[in-house]
Design a protein that fits this description.
The protein is built from three helices and seven strands; from the N terminus they run βαβαββββαβ. It is 20% helix and 35% strand. It is α+β, with helices and mostly antiparallel strands and 162 residues long.
Length: 162
């Protein structure tokens, strides 16, 4: 029996909580970005490469940080954000032309770092991940989270202050 393909209406654009619920993404996930698997995303096993999943998460993180008040993320001259730790668990494969939604939220926030959780959704949950992000000034020294990131991570995501 063929399972109906999971389809979304937006690709490479933020998806808000109310729309996520319509796609079957549960609370507490309130921010997502949709993607579609293309031929170039496939590996020798004929499913989406693990590296592509990481790139989807990176693209999600850029949209997330910008939406949460850091519009200069990944722009020349801005302070830096580096990944201190990243972990991912792949639960199901993604195939050609499959649509996915990457969601993420901050679960802990400190002065110069935060911990994020991610999930990739299609017909159910495809992967889970977590990362520790560290914010640096232009000289590579730890700096405060930029702009309104910290208060919005606490307010919108329920992040626990450290």
């Amino acid at each position: 029996m063929n399972e109906q393909k999971f389809r979304i209406s937006k690709h490479y654009e933020p998806i808000k909580a109310t729309d996520l619920r319509g796609y079957g993404v549960p609370e507490p996930w309130n921010f997502g970005v949709g993607f579609r698997a293309t031929f170039g995303d496939l590996d020798a096993q004929n499913h989406v490469s693990n590296v592509k999943c990481l790139r989807w998460i990176e693209a999600f993180r850029m949209a997330y940080l910008r939406a949460y008040g850091w519009p200069e993320y990944a722009t020349p001259g801005a302070n830096l954000m580096v990944i201190r730790r990243f972990q991912i668990d792949y639960l199901k494969p993604v195939h050609l032309d499959d649509d996915v939604i990457v969601t993420g939220r901050t679960v802990q926030v400190g002065r110069s770092s935060c911990t994020m959780e991610y999930a990739i959704w299609g017909n159910g949950q495809i992967a889970t991940a977590s990362a520790v992000l560290v914010f640096l000034d232009q000289h590579g020294t730890k700096s405060d989270l930029p702009g309104t990131l910290r208060p919005l991570m606490i307010e919108w995501d329920g992040a626990q202050p450290r």
